[in-house]
Each structure stands twice: as structure tokens, then as C-alpha cells.
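Chloroplast processing peptidase isoform X3 structure dump, as promised
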Amino acid sequence: MSFLRPSALSQLLITYTSLQWMPCQSWGFFRWPGFDGFLRLLVMFLLWTMLSEIRFIPSSSMYPTLRVGDRIIVEKGSYYIRSPAINDIVTFWDPTQKPGDGERNVFIKRIVAKAGDWVEINHGSLYVNGIAKDEDFIAGPPTYVSALTYVPKGHVYVLGDNRNKSYDSHF
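C-alpha cells r here:
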């Protein structure tokens, strides 16, 4: 029966030297990995869910860095190893929201000052410890004025990149 014989094209592909060593030519490539593979998959899934999460950007408070509708993967593991640094973009729960008020709001902001710093916004510039910061990532200079504020120990001062349309530490 001639229709059961391999065609000339398939014979050419199988004998072509670069295709002979492809791992997918063996049906063993498609097998279930077994119990150890299942455990590896389970560990990877648990690490993924504990150390990262996917977020959707709902507002323009971080424009132009993050736009409305962007999706980001938030990596949560590095702050177990190191402290937050200036200019890090962080996510955190709304500190003014009371527990049990429904779904908790998550803010995405940029750290501009750390514990022990003095922060002031005046004349369209951010001043940290009396020094004006050059910020080339903001949407525009702030049109508001905030009083000199001390950042207490264990806290950070966060602002959105769209300073005039962001609910952040200056409130």
C-alpha cells in the first residue's frame, strides 16, 4: 500500500542533518513530566503567586511613566532583601481606607524621600532636605504648595509622576 509509505518530502526532512537533533522529533518530548515535574510546577506556581502579582493601571497619577490601561507585573520579593530606594516605584494599600470597606484600593507611586528627610513642594519644585530635585520623569511641575514635612522613621514619602492629578503623600 503506497499511501502508508513515507513521502519523499518527509524523508528529506528527516535526513536533513540540522533537523535530526531537534528534541521535538521524539514523541517523548510531549510526555507528561511525571511526579517530579508536577512538584516543580507547583513550586514555581507558589513562588509566582507569593512574590509577584499583575496590576492594572486605573488612573493617570503616574503619567507619563505608566498610562491608564497599562498592565504591570509587581515584584514583591526584593524588599525582603533590601530597603526601598529613592525613585523606586512601589505599590501599597490605601492607608486611609478602613478594613471591611469592600475591595481595598492599591496605590502605585514613586518614592521621593525616605525616613529622616524633610520634604517641601514650593515654586513648582520638589525640595528634599532643602535641595531642589531635578525630575525629568514628571508630567509637569506641581502647581500646589506643601509645607515642610518630616518623614518619620519606618515611612517613605511618595508622589505620583503626574503631580497635579495624584492622591499621594502631599495630602
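The CA atoms of residues 10 and 16 lie 10 Å apart.
lmk if u need the other ones
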